[in-house]
Amino acid sequence: MNNYEALIVFKPFIDSDNPEQVVRIIENAIKKADGKLKKVEKLGRKRLAYEINNFKDGFLATALLEVDSSHIEDFRKAFDHNEDVLRLTILKLDKVALKSITTPRPLREHQSRGDRPSPGGHRAHQGGRR
Fold it and tell me: Model pTM?
């Protein structure tokens, strides 16, 4: 079994009609591929870089899945027959990429611009002429 990440672009109104429809579509596709769905993240409605089928916006979702490589085409075909899907991109993940996706990142302490040292290692002068 291999790990994949799928980015799915749906028509923009799909989540407003039925919020759980996105998850259901992805779950049905993974069932057809005899795989396991690990995580679904709905990214929301976004402006697309270019129009797809006359849509300027799309509803984006990512899915982390585990499926045999011989069945990944079945996963792709499940989306081909769905009229709510505008685009599908699938990436095969190696162990390092999988770990970086599944491991939560620690929050960094916020630094304001004045707290950073200047490139020379000294604090920049903050005022007028002396």
Answer: 0.71
- pLDDT tens-place string over residues 87-129: 999 999 876 666 666 666 666 655 455 555 555 555 555 555 5
User: Coil, helix or strand for 68?
Assistant: coil
Q: What six digits make up the tokens of 24?
A: 């259901």
| Residue among 23, 99, 35 nearest 61 (CA) | 23
Question: What CATH number is given to the structural domain containing 53?
Answer: 3.30.70.60
Please give the structure tokens belonging to residue 25.
């579509």
Domain count, the chain: 1
Instruction: Report yes or no: 18 and 91 within 8 Å, Cβ to Cβ.
Output: no
Question: Among 4, 7, 72, 12, which Cα is nearest to 38's?
Answer: 4
User: Tokens representing 59?
Assistant: 């509803």
The rounded distance, in Å, linking the Cα atoms of 122 and 17 is: 56
Reported as a single tens digit per residue, the pLDDT across 58-98 is 999 999 999 998 999 989 998 888 899 999 999 998 766 66
